[in-house]
């Protein structure tokens, strides 16, 4: 089973999503939470820090595990550990344009459909409701 992390960054009642490139083998051209695979010997927390620095050029300061879900995948099941990030340094940018075509902020009512994060959409909406007072770092 693959193990992954996903970060829920919320600012002004909106969540940050990344749009996966159309050339990617898994889940091409869809919106998803930033994150990725946990490398061998890496803790989930360290993987989250590394992935968000690589993908968004932000250093996360405060975060908590919201939930862990099993994402059914036709090739290999994926355990996704979903963290709510309540504090970070830097303004998120698309730091990996080869992996993501764009990033965007979405309100709970404008979340795009996605076969990746639909399995944890309730977690995202719950986090947005609880942490909607955060502002951009």
What does this structure look like?
The chain is α+β, with helices and mostly antiparallel strands and 137 residues long. The protein has a single domain (2-127), classed as Nucleoside Triphosphate Pyrophosphohydrolase. It has 2 helices and 7 strands. Strands 1, 2, 3, 4, 5, 6 and 7 form a 7-stranded mixed beta sheet that branches.
Present the secondary structure layout.
Elements: E1 2-11, E2 14-20, E3 31-32, E4 35-37, H1 44-56, E5 59-71, E6 78-89, E7 100-107, H2 121-130
Parallel strand pairs: 1-6
Antiparallel strand pairs: 1-2, 1-4, 2-3, 2-7, 5-6
Entry summary:
Helix content is 17%, strand content 40%. The longest helix has 13 residues, at 44-56.
**Oligomeric form of this entry?**
single chain
Structural class: alpha+beta
* Count of discrete domains: 1
**Named CATH architecture:** Alpha-Beta Complex
Described by the principal axes of the CA atoms, the overall outline is globular
CATH class bucket: Alpha Beta
CATH fold-type name: Nucleoside Triphosphate Pyrophosphohydrolase
Question: What can be said about the biggest beta sheet?
Answer: 7 strands, mixed
Distance between the termini: 35 Å
Computed Rg: 14 Å
Q: Name the average pLDDT.
A: 90
